[in-house]
Write a structure and sequence with these properties.
By secondary structure, this protein is α/β, with parallel strands linked by helices. The chain has three domains: 167 residues, 3-Layer(aba) Sandwich (Rossmann fold); 165 residues, 3-Layer(aba) Sandwich (Rossmann fold); 184 residues, 3-Layer(aba) Sandwich (Rossmann fold). 37% of the residues lie in helices and 16% in strands. It contains 24 helices and 20 strands. The strands form four sheets. The protein has a six-stranded parallel beta sheet, with helices on both faces. The chain has a six-stranded parallel beta sheet with strand order 9-8-7-10-11-12, with helices on both faces. The chain has a six-stranded parallel beta sheet with strand order 14-13-15-16-18-17, sandwiched between helices. Helix 12 packs antiparallel against helix 16. It is globular. The chain starts with a helix and ends in an 11-residue tail after the last strand.
């Protein structure tokens, strides 16, 4: 069979349901093969970056690699931001790019380009993928495809890129459709590890679990919830683990870090034991003062990536392990261990929460963003996921959304890419086959606004909430703190359209609200037709900042606006 046909059949054998792409000359063979096979749906987006983000959401929600394609040259380079997002947030994905025919490649010649749109995407993608290969030998396609899917899922998940020349796609090969899978077995852990953790946990007065995105990557959410129900230890979460525990779970504390809930950071400051599960403890979680984060407390750090342990935070007890077998063992050991009652410690945290509620951090006229997030959650019980863009709205959402047991929270963490939410929601809606909610700012919404056409074309049940403060709010807040309230490019010289009018141009129903008294009716309108797209524009005051925020250079317990930074933050 032709290589292109083998690729189409192989993707189907891997359970791939959707391939996100923009057609281009160097992928027409593969696109045509997928179309003729008829078992995988081609989703045509309007920018390759959108294809990458849609594939990323697919990978996060299914645990299987999302797949996106791009043609040579600009098609391939447009995928790079989404590829990097998958890499930094440990999302399994396979990206397939077309390349010019082998006889049109410049090879070692000292020229910039031979074939039209010839671009060395493998060299560009190498630093932000687990592997990037150009396949110039047609007979290598079956083996490398198998390796790509295995590598994307094994160990710490991530993206893989395959660059396939046009003539290779049309070549004939002799290969079976189904390639035997590679079976990976996780090594068992010594029982003493679990005994030591539980001994130190029971000796602690104020223990916490800190969970990160690795919990989802390891498919270990149910195990985490089992463990927490047994040991009754309070749980704080990173930005990418907002959905680790349901909002109303008695052990859920909230968001940690730079924009964390104030009561959460205060609880961390009081803790004497932390079990870190699948979090790399980056600066957005710990603050810049790493010595203060470690302090005298005992920290067990569990991660599959040895390089992430004792990297920024020194002195942690290192456990290099896949979280699924680790938590399986810890749950088993905890079941047979008497666990200390934590009622006093949980009550103390609840007291901090009552003292520092998220809804009173912001003092700005108009709609309170944190109050809005609570109300949006309560109105959106039909949503399978909240897909959140990057900016101040991202922090308000992470601080205040009320997720139930089955709802997911997706955002761009390590890459922090504006424009993530709208295309990611396309992937999320398709794979969940349920409504999803987008939360975006006016800036991020404009980055990939063209995907409103993809949503309208497929009539996807995506409820789009645009928080419009007519500024790039997170950087405007940065300028307020460090640049004497000069706002070039964030408020001065920047503008945004009426998104309600834009939505109507795409045949999407829409509404605008500017006062809190109108929100109830707006939510009712948004959900009146659950299976139809809808855009709700929410007008916010430009002065609304994301608070609390760690005062840079100070311990994570000292947060703006009451504490002031000691120096300009560099990240």
């Amino acid at each position: 069979m032709r290589v292109a046909d083998f690729i189409a059949n192989f993707l189907h054998e891997q359970g791939v349901q959707y391939v996100y792409q923009i057609i281009g000359g160097m992928i027409t063979r593969m696109v045509d093969a997928i179309y003729q096979q008829g078992k995988i749906k081609l989703i045509s987006v309007h920018h390759e970056q959108a294809a990458a983000f849609a594939a990323e959401a697919t990978g996060r929600l299914t645990g299987m690699p999302g797949v996106a394609m791009g043609t040579s040259g600009p098609g391939a380079t447009n995928l790079l931001t989404g590829i990097g997002s998958c890499y930094f947030d440990s999302t399994p994905a396979v990206f397939i790019t077309g390349q010019v025919n082998r006889n049109e490649q410049k090879g070692n010649r000292p020229i910039r380009q031979l074939g039209f749109q010839e671009t060395d995407i493998v060299a560009m993608a190498g630093p932000i993928t687990k592997a990037a290969w150009r396949i110039n030998d047609p007979d290598q396609v079956p083996h490398i495809l198998q390796q790509a899917f295995h590598l994307a899922l094994s160990g710490r998940p991530g993206p893989v890129l395959l660059d396939i020349p046009m003539d290779v796609q049309g070549a004939e090969i002799n290969a079976p459709i189904a390639v035997p899978p590679i079976i990976e077995v996780s090594p068992s852990l010594p029982e003493k590890i679990f005994e030591d953790i539980l001994y130190d946990l029971n000796a602690a007065e104020r223990p916490l679990f800190l969970v990160g995105a690795g919990i989802r990557s390891a498919n270990a959410i149910s195990l985490l919830r089992q463990l927490v129900d047994i040991v009754k230890v309070p749980v704080v979460n990173s930005l990418l683990a907002v959905d680790a525990l349901p909002y109303k779970h008695p052990s859920r504390v909230g968001l940690i870090g730079t924009y964390g809930n104030r009561w959460v950071n205060l609880a961390v400051g009081k803790s004497d034991f932390i079990l870190v599960l699948g979090s790399r403890l980056d600066i957005r979680q710990t603050g810049a003062l790493v010595s203060n984060f470690k302090g005298e407390r005992l920290i067990y750090h569990v991660d599959i990536d040895a390089a992430e342990i004792n990297n920024r935070i020194q002195g942690c007890k290192s456990i290099i392990a896949h979280l699924h077998p680790f938590l399986t063992g810890l749950v088993g050991a905890a079941t047979h261990t008497h666990c200390q009652n934590r009622a006093d410690w949980i009550s103390e945290i609840q007291g901090l929460r009552k003292q520092w509620p998220d809804t009173r951090e912001i003092q700005a006229p108009g709609i309170n963003p944190n109050v809005f997030m609570h109300e949006l959650s309560r109105a959106s019980s039909l949503a399978s996921a909240f897909i959140v863009d990057v900016g101040n709205h991202q922090m308000w959402a992470a601080q205040s959304l009320e997720l139930d047991e089955h709802q997911r929270f997706l955002t761009s963490g390590g890459m922090g890419a504006m424009g993530f939410a709208l295309p990611a929601a396309i992937g999320a809606s398709l794979v969940t086959k349920k409504p999803v909610v987008v939360i975006a700012g006016d800036g991020g919404m404009q980055v990939n606004i063209q995907e409103l056409q993809t949503i309208a074309h497929h009539r996807l049940p995506i409820k789009i909430v645009v928080l419009n403060n007519q500024s790039l709010g997170m950087v405007r807040q940065f300028q307020e703190s460090y640049f004497q309230e000069r706002y070039p490019a964030t408020s001065w010289g920047y503008s945004a359209p009426d998104f309600s009018e834009v939505a109507r141009a795409y045949r999407i129903e829409s509404l605008t609200v500017s006062d809190a008294s109108s929100l109830s009716a707006a939510f009712e309108a948004m959900w009146a037709k659950p299976q139809e797209p809808f855009l709700l524009q929410v007008v916010l005051d430009t002065s609304a900042n994301a608070y609390p925020k760690i005062a840079f250079g100070r311990p994570m317990t000292e947060m703006e606006p009451f504490a002031k930074p000691l120096e300009m933050e560099g990240t």
